[in-house]
């Protein structure tokens, strides 16, 4: 296990930011940590990266107790913050150089890694330009380069693709995927994009500081959502005869059923209605909504 | 060894951040620039008039204007150096505040670098930046004095250099302690405006303390800034007074000049000797250093 959290507690005055939270992250895993703003995600991340002390419980990262000597393990962690935390007036080069030094990377070792990372994130064209003059996507690439420069074992991505164009999002994910495959990087992700969470190996959903649900995306979908049947080219009065709640989706009708078996049963019961249709599993949005009663992208 | 290299990397980064912020750099230089403009427009004439008044009182007429012009310039230069050691330090320490305000500090604290190293790097960078600016101001001031009348001895030049190092330490520590409690740009602006506008007056740098009412003068005697200015005054004015004395000015007139322009400092009617001034400033530096260390330790524990 690269992260082990047992009965974690953290309060700010009367507010319980994290309340008896326990979960584990395996080495090399792509882990998604979901919750609305204020659910306790950032507090947990800050405790994991050693910048905040918990009130109770235990947090081990790479086998190290984070409440004691976090600096012993901080060199194994890379973080991409929701909002860039680099020096805006300095160039990408200066930022990388000053941060690399904090991990003991100097001289030839720095130049060698810089060449690799410049290639990996296509930084060459703007490496010497101040960050303030870069586009959002370019800045994000520098953030990622900084987080990965020291070859961490654990990469924490705090909503890394919020506000990015699809091309840059794809680039970010390709680079992360590549590193996961090549170097066995563990990725700890918080995101507002449910399609990104759907690709995770394991998901924990946090609600008001407590764990509301956990499992693989498939387990969560099976547990918390049904299947959706979309019927095309049918009349509303025919849909009504099925005796199930439905909703209009453009010119089609959408019916939620318990699972795929229930969908099959329905098709067999009224085959005339199923000339043009599709059956899909509920997505992570539906999981999140059913678990917390809240929509992630709205909050 | 590695921690030392991390420290120097952070100092370099902090200094770079300061010099790349053109507005911040300009604002830091605002106080010396304002003082220079004030001097050129009317302060010089006011000082020279005051000197003339004292000369007339002691029936002295200087054979050359060079030591008189030089004395006015030296007085101004001591004011600029004393005030700006604090105001420039307060401004250049903005890197520490903006790191907190803009969240950049998160990126530093998630790195494997000690909090003490990080805090010391802010202080060291601030000291280096302020010292660099002060040495440039000092060099320009020396050029001016050389043009209007150079009477400083080599010994005085070295003493003045030492005073600048001490004053910058004093200013950097004040900035470090004061700004440890600020985490917004608004707070930073308020503090630097307050310090820039007030410090020169309460330390007697803009106006000699001798011109204040006695109770005010005594009250200001409790502030260590008064003595950091006093040290510089003593070393800047001494050689000019000596030159004027050599050209026929009486010792009484010299003492009157020193008294009127804070070359000699008094508190509750007693003259404060130079060693006592050093002791007060150095002691305050030690106290501030202790306070800074306590703040760093407290923050470390609060994490």
Main attributes of the structure:
heterodimer, A: 299 residues, alpha/beta, Rossmann fold, Alpha-Beta Plaits, 6-stranded mixed sheet, 4-stranded antiparallel sheet, 34% helix, B: 303 residues, mainly alpha, two-stranded antiparallel sheet
Secondary structure: elements and pairs:
The complex is a heterodimer of chains A (299) and B (303).
Chain A (H helix, E strand, L loop, with lengths): L2 E10 L2 E11 L4 E5 L6 H8 L7 E6 L2 E2 L11 E4 L11 H11 L4 H14 L15 H13 L5 E5 L7 H18 L2 E5 L3 H5 L3 E6 L2 E6 L1 H8 L2 E5 L4 H5 L5 E4 L2 E6 L2 H10 L7 E5 L2 H9 L7
Parallel strand pairs in A: 3-8, 3-9, 6-7, 7-8
Antiparallel strand pairs in A: 1-2, 1-4, 4-5, 9-10, 11-13, 11-14, 12-13
Helix pairs in contact in A: 2-4, 7-10
Chain B lengths: L1 H19 L1 H7 L1 H28 L8 H27 L1 H8 L2 H6 L5 H34 L5 H25 L6 H18 L11 H7 L3 H23 L4 H10 L4 E3 L2 E3 L1 H29 L1
Q: How many angstroms does the end-to-end distance of chain A come to?
A: 32 Å
β-strand percent of chain B reads under 5%
Radius of gyration of chain A: 23 Å
Rg of Cα set of chain B: 21 Å
Uncertain segments of chain A = none
Regarding quaternary structure, what we see is heterodimer
Q: What is the domain total for the residues of chain B?
A: 1
Annotated CATH architecture of the largest domain in chain A: 3-Layer(aba) Sandwich
Q: How many DSSP H or I helices of chain A?
A: 10
Most extensive interface: A-B, 30 and 25 residues
Output the structural class of chain B: mainly alpha
The CATH fourth-level homologous superfamily of the largest domain in chain A? P-loop containing nucleotide triphosphate hydrolases
Main β sheet profile of chain B: 2 strands, antiparallel
What shape does the CA trace of chain A take?
A: globular
Helical content of chain A stands at 25-40%
- What number is the mean pLDDT of chain B? 90
Q: Please report the number of helical segments of chain B.
A: 13
Mean pLDDT of chain A: 88
Quick one: biggest sheet of chain A? 6 strands, mixed
CATH topology of the largest domain in chain A: Rossmann fold
């Amino acid at each position: 296990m690269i992260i082990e959290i047992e009965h974690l507690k953290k309060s700010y005055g009367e507010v319980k930011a994290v309340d008896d939270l326990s979960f584990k992250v395996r080495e090399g895993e792509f882990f998604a940590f979901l919750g609305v703003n204020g659910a306790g995600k950032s507090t947990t991340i800050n405790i994991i990266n050693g910048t905040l002390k918990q009130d109770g419980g235990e947090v081990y990262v790479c086998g190290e107790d984070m409440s004691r000597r976090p600096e012993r393990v901080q060199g194994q962690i890379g973080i991409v913050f929701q909002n860039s935390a680099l020096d805006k007036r300095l160039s990408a080069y200066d930022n990388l150089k000053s941060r690399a030094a904090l991990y003991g990377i100097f001289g030839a070792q720095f130049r060698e890694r810089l060449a690799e990372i410049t290639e990996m994130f296509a930084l060459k064209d703007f490496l010497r330009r101040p960050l303030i003059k870069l586009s959002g996507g370019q800045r994000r690439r520098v953030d990622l380069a900084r987080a990965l420069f020291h070859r961490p074992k654990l990469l924490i991505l705090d909503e890394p693709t919020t506000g990015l164009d699809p091309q840059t999002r794809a680039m970010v994910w390709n680079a992360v995927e590549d590193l996961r495959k090549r170097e066995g990087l563990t990725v700890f992700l918080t995101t507002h994009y449910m399609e990104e969470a759907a690709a995770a190996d394991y998901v924990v959903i946090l609600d008001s500081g407590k764990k509301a649900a956990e499992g693989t995306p498939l387990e969560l979908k099976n547990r918390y959502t049904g299947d959706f049947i979309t019927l095309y080219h049918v009349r509303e009065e025919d849909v009504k005869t099925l005796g199930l709640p439905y909703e209009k989706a453009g010119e089609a009708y959408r019916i939620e059923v318990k699972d795929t078996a229930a969908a099959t049963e329905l098709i067999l019961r009224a085959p005339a209605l199923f000339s043009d249709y599709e059956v899909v599993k509920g997505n992570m949005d539906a999981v999140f909504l059913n678990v917390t009663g809240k929509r992630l992208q709205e909050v | 060894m590695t921690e030392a290299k991390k420290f120097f990397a952070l100092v370099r980064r902090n200094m770079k951040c300061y010099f790349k912020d053109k507005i911040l750099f300009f604002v830091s230089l605002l106080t010396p620039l304002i003082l220079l403009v004030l001097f050129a427009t009317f302060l010089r004439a006011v000082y020279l008039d005051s000197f003339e008044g004292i000369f007339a009182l002691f029936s002295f007429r200087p054979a050359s204007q060079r030591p008189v012009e030089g004395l006015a310039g030296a007085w101004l230069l001591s004011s600029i150096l004393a005030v700006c050691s604090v105001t420039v330090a307060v401004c250049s320490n903005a890197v520490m505040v903006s790191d907190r305000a803009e969240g950049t500090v998160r990126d530093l604290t998630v790195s494997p670098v000690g909090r003490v190293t990080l805090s010391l790097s802010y202080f060291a960078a601030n000291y280096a930046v302020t010292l660099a600016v002060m040495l440039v101001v000092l060099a320009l001031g020396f050029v001016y004095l050389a043009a209007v009348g150079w009477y400083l001895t080599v010994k005085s030049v070295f003493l003045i250099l030492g005073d600048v190092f001490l004053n910058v330490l004093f200013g950097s520590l004040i900035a470090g302690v004061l700004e440890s409690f600020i985490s917004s740009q608004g707070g930073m602006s308020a503090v630097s405006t307050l310090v820039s506008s007030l410090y020169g007056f309460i330390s007697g740098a803009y106006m000699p303390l001798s011109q204040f009412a006695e109770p005010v003068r005594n009250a200001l005697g409790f502030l260590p800034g008064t003595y950091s200015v006093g040290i510089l005054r003593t070393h800047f004015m001494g050689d000019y007074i000596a030159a004027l004395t050599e050209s026929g000015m009486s010792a009484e007139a010299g003492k009157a000049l020193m008294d009127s322009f804070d070359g000699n400092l008094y508190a509750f009617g007693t003259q404060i000797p130079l060693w006592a001034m050093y002791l007060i400033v150095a002691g305050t530096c030690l106290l501030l250093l202790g306070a800074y260390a306590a703040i760093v330790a407290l923050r470390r524990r609060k994490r």
